[in-house]
Write a structure and sequence with these properties.
The structure is a homodimer. By secondary structure, chain A is α/β, with parallel strands linked by helices. Chain A is 19% helix and 30% strand.
Chain lengths: 424, 424
Amino acid sequence: MIRRRLRFRTPQAVLRSLRLATQYGPLTSEAMAIEKALGQVLAQDITSTLDIPHFVRPWVDGYATKARWTRRASSMGPVTLRLAGRLFPEDYPKSSELGDREAFYVTCGAPVPKGADCVIKAEDARSVGSEIRVLKEAKVGEGLSRPGEDVRRGSLVLKRGQVLRAQDLGLIVALGKREVTVFRKPKLAILSVGDELVDPDHFGPDRIVNNYAYVISAATSESGGTPVLLGIAPDDPDSIAAKLSEGVQLADAVATIGGCSVGAKDFVPDAIARLGEVIAHGVKIRPGHVAGVGVVRGKPVFMLPGHISSCTMAFYVFVVPTLARLAGIGPSKILPSARAELSVAIDKAATHTFLRLRLKERRGRLLAEPIHGGTNILSSLSRANGFVLVPPGTSMRKGQAINVTLFGKLEHASFDYSKSSRDC
Amino acid sequence: MIRRRLRFRTPQAVLRSLRLATQYGPLTSEAMAIEKALGQVLAQDITSTLDIPHFVRPWVDGYATKARWTRRASSMGPVTLRLAGRLFPEDYPKSSELGDREAFYVTCGAPVPKGADCVIKAEDARSVGSEIRVLKEAKVGEGLSRPGEDVRRGSLVLKRGQVLRAQDLGLIVALGKREVTVFRKPKLAILSVGDELVDPDHFGPDRIVNNYAYVISAATSESGGTPVLLGIAPDDPDSIAAKLSEGVQLADAVATIGGCSVGAKDFVPDAIARLGEVIAHGVKIRPGHVAGVGVVRGKPVFMLPGHISSCTMAFYVFVVPTLARLAGIGPSKILPSARAELSVAIDKAATHTFLRLRLKERRGRLLAEPIHGGTNILSSLSRANGFVLVPPGTSMRKGQAINVTLFGKLEHASFDYSKSSRDC
């Protein structure tokens, strides 16, 4: 019944072949309003065209004056200055001038009167009628922002390939921009394959519901991509090929789920070969050794096996790095990771092992506990938070520190963080 | 010019007073389609109403037979069985029966013929015409999933308060659900206060642009909330009060930015007092000691100071725990954290310190480098990734391991992770 011989290759070799065959790189870029740019990948370097702040301005509320007039001021021996007026930010471009031993009350961002070289904080003086009593000696420049102190004109503020965070957006707005050029998010079309599958709307206890598509779809969103659900194709090469064609038209890459093993009805490789090329089928990895990749019209097609653990392996090992590359960022930046200690020793294996791990905090330390067995057990994945890829011939000792790649940006909420360890 | 005396209290005491005054808890819940539920907070326990799988089924492609007929089978001495037919998942509910020394070819999820107690993997047998040669002894139960092996009927599958991840959604679909009950996301209205501020559309090099609202807005999204931008109110108690009224109508909480210090034009506390109550004004923390909280129509109002570092402090120390509570999850679950080693010693201080930190990886270890100074320097925030709150009188030594709370779920993409350390 075995019609196909798999040629097993390392995960790295499979990814390399796929890159060579598709030559994929970052997608086109597009302008996006700042309000929508959170989490997008910057497609341009951003250089400041101005100094921030643009002019000398107080960054505290207080009294603008000359520092030398406050010499030896103290709470025991205050220095008296004449209060000449008040200046607020909206007074721009009004100009005032400091007379001898005078001070102006100024608020943050107000114009600074000519001749003033410091702003004494409000709490370091007392106002008494038309005078103030300065309680503390001031230094030249105190309380004043210099132009360019925050951002200097001509400086590189944000780099191409950076994921935009809240504070980055604030900086972009400060530069006078309302839009930013970002890489288009990669779209991944997801096709489930199998005569046995039904849509959740046709759920029944004797049916097998197409739920893995929802896992891969949500995991795609978590990995910086936009999922496109293609539905279910029966075990028939024509139907699969038709859906694959649709997929490469709608999306930047396609992932099939199921139908790629060596059984009598595993027609996904045939369908890919009909439209394009199977680049690799068979991976030296457990679980998921029947996974593979192909190319259709220059776009990557991933064959994810039908068992959930294998499917997950192929998604994280092959699809995620590809999404990262299409998105314009490094593969290590697409998913968070956590440093943890292995809870048990791991024996060496002949192939790569995709080891699912559950994270737990014990006395302020993060432990990673392997989840074994049940390649077809979805609930075991729900208990896990991430994985490591253990190379062949590598054993790991109990307590060894490892970097666990988390399954998504939401995983942190699932750890058993004890409250105490969150205080520093 | 100081019109108001602040009463400085610890951050914990301020939060406690706010909780007592507002008695806020999780918001109402709502039904949500699975496709939209990624990252939502579950408002119900989910208990399985069925066994998954629902019936005995093969989880490999191969040959269903009786294990005892394969006794002593090996590649050197294969055992021959008659191939009686093929069964696929769509053959349900067709029933077949195993005759003496017979086997059926079955694929994953297919019905199991009566009398079969194992499924031999396809690669452990060879098919030759109407016979198969079994190359390996099989065990009873091998290759078969038992009903309830994945999820047992009546078992608690997901808990109220859990943040829904990709794999959780797959599990919910497997239970036959298309919808799930989640807590409504809290809305935070954001009001910037200051005569000097202009909207980004009116940007000019001599103007101060209202960019902090964009930082707080995006940080709200990253913290599980929905931001509502109220725009800018001038330094005038009536205008501020009008906008605050609008805010508490539109949202579950309001954050004001600026106008809460002790300057001549700091009218936010007055505006709050007019509509409700100032619960606390003044916090024993640096930076941001002029922050405060109030209550208007039972809803929390946060006074975030106008300097970016102070504003950020008040957001993370007061707003984020409140958003977490409104969202129905623990405060430690709303933002990710990273364990890192302090790059320098930190001297003890008289008040709490909101210490901004930049994370860097050095030889597989994560270092946390304090970002000092520049409370009004936005670019310093862009260099930082998270914070620790250092209690008063606490010094920390160089190399000490600390839990850094990250500013958002996107921060991990900003660390300097070296490639090598991502391999295990």
